[in-house]
């Protein structure tokens, strides 16, 4: 979707303003937000792609003003409601009002080291050989789906060069919507800044994205 | 003149007025934790364990050890280039948001910079949790179109003829920048070298420290 999250090349956000010796958390609720988000991820009811799409669906005005942990919490509430684990009414009330479905897994303290150390690999085998090789010229497709995609707007309809075949991975655009993992080859594709930004682009700059096979056309 | 910190505070004061449900995040998140705990869906002790992990065990010191080893050991450096996930795992750094690692090496010709324009993808296993600026619109929007102005805000100025390569983490690969080894560090062991490797130098918004500036 062309949501507020797709920020590459937008302007007007002011200086980056790094904070010297920044703490990991700026408030206690951020610690809890991290832990709750990861704990709910352990239910096994949704994967990262669906979480990302829920975050993209935070309304633009709110998304751009919110801290990232706030975006996480807003999206988490959407996911909890969608999958029946908690209702808006319960979150308002601050208490359980109905029995939830039983998740595949409830994360306990003892499980945390193992779960974090394993992570969630999303490489998957595919039966076909990669369509492109390093050095191939390709063009990204131009599309504007209302659904989840990982092809940023700035890199649509652009010519670039495949730099590496990176393996085959769960296809985010499908998996975010429960259409299955449908793994595809992923390639690193490099663009000259001039191809992306046109007049006045920094001639010393190249930008790469990691693109699923179906984002690309041969040129 | 802009005062960055003043701007930041100003933004902070304002962003609490836009939606009453989220005007008090402390209360909102406490409510969520209570509901989920009452339902038996989460374990508050697991949350404590997660927080402790990222406050004390998984942070940029991990990445600094990877870089220091790559500087010291050409065999490891080659392995890191060929199979970063395995090379990094050999030092014990694995797991969440480090499942599929790539290491990109700065050279005198090319400087690498990592961003996630679409969300906040970051190599947690080697760098820990991302700083606020990495997840915020200013960095995510400008890194891909005008990285030199971004670098200037980190007090980094590269020669005009240095090429800049920006890696937008749009899929599940996570990138670790291996900064150039500073001069005057020939005699240093890996432990001392790791002290020169800042978090920002492994994102590409900084350079490794000169030995006299070691922290």
TrEMBL record, chain A:
Enzyme's top EC category: lyase
Record's keyword terms, sorted: Lyase
Residue span(s) of domain Nitrile hydratase beta subunit: 121-217
Reactions accelerated catalytically: an aliphatic primary amide = an aliphatic nitrile + H2O
EC number from the UniProt entry: 4.2.1.84
Keyword field contains Iron-sulfur: no
Domain Nitrile hydratase beta subunit-like N-terminal: 1-104
GO MF annotation, one: nitrile hydratase activity
InterPro entries reported for this sequence: CN_hydtase_beta-like_N (IPR049054), CN_hydtase_beta_C (IPR042262), CN_hydtase_beta_dom_C (IPR024690), Elect_transpt_acc-like_dom_sf (IPR008990), Nitrile_hydratase_bsu (IPR003168)
Function text: NHase catalyzes the hydration of various nitrile compounds to the corresponding amides.
Database matches in NCBIfam families: nitrile_beta
Family, similarity comment: Belongs to the nitrile hydratase subunit beta family.
Name of this protein: Nitrile hydratase subunit beta
Organism the protein comes from: Pseudorhizobium tarimense
Lineage: Bacteria, Pseudomonadati, Pseudomonadota, Alphaproteobacteria, Hyphomicrobiales
UniProtKB/TrEMBL annotation, chain B:
SUPFAM superfamilies recorded: Nitrile hydratase alpha chain
EC number: 4.2.1.84
Substrates-to-products reaction catalysed: an aliphatic primary amide = an aliphatic nitrile + H2O
Lineage top rank: taxon: Bacteria
Family: Belongs to the nitrile hydratase subunit alpha family.
Region listing for Disordered, in residue ranges: 1-22
Protein name, UniProt field: nitrile hydratase
Keywords: Lyase, Metal-binding
């Amino acid at each position: 979707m062309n949501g507020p999250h797709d920020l590459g090349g937008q302007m007007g956000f002011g200086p980056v303003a790094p904070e010297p010796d920044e703490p990991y958390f700026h408030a206690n609720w951020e610690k809890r937000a991290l832990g709750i988000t990861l704990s709910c991820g352990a239910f096994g009811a949704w994967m990262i792609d669906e979480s990302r799409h829920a975050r993209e669906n935070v309304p633009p005005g709110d998304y751009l003003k919110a801290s990232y942990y706030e975006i996480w919490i807003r999206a988490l509430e959407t996911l909890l409601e969608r999958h029946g684990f908690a209702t808006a009414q319960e979150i308002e009330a601050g208490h359980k009002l109905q029995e939830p479905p039983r998740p595949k897994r409830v994360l306990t303290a003892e499980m945390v080291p193992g779960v974090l150390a394993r992570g969630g690999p999303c490489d998957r085998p595919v039966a076909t050989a990669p369509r492109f090789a390093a050095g191939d010229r390709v063009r990204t497709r131009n599309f504007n789906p209302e659904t989840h995609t990982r092809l940023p707007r700035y890199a649509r309809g652009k010519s670039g060069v495949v730099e590496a075949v990176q393996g085959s991975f769960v296809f985010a655009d499908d998996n975010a919507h429960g259409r299955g993992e449908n793994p595809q080859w992923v390639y690193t594709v490099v663009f000259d800044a001039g191809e992306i930004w046109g007049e006045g682009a920094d001639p010393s700059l190249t930008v790469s994205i990691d693109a699923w096979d179906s984002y690309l056309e041969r040129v | 003149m802009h005062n960055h910190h003043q701007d930041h505070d100003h933004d902070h004061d304002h962003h609490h007025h836009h939606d009453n449900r989220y005007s008090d995040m402390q209360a909102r998140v406490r409510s969520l934790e209570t509901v989920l705990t009452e339902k038996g869906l989460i374990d508050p002790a697991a949350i404590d364990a997660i927080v402790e992990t990222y406050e004390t065990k998984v942070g940029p010191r991990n990445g600094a050890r990877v870089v220091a080893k790559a500087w010291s050991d050409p065999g490891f450096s080659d392995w890191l280039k060929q199979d970063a996930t395995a090379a990094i795992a050999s030092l014990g750094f694995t797991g969440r948001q480090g499942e599929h690692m790539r290491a990109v090496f700065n050279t005198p010709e090319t400087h690498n910079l990592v961003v996630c324009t679409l969300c906040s993808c970051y190599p947690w296993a080697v760098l820990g949790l991302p700083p606020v600026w990495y997840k915020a619109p200013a960095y995510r929007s400008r890194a891909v179109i005008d990285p030199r102005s971004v670098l200037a805000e980190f007090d980094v100025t590269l020669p005009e003829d240095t090429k800049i390569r920006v890696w937008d983490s749009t899929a599940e690969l996570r990138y670790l920048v291996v900064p150039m080894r500073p001069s005057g560090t020939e005699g240093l062991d890996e432990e001392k070298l790791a002290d020169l490797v800042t978090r920002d130098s492994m994102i590409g918004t900084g350079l490794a420290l000169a030995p006299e500036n070691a922290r």
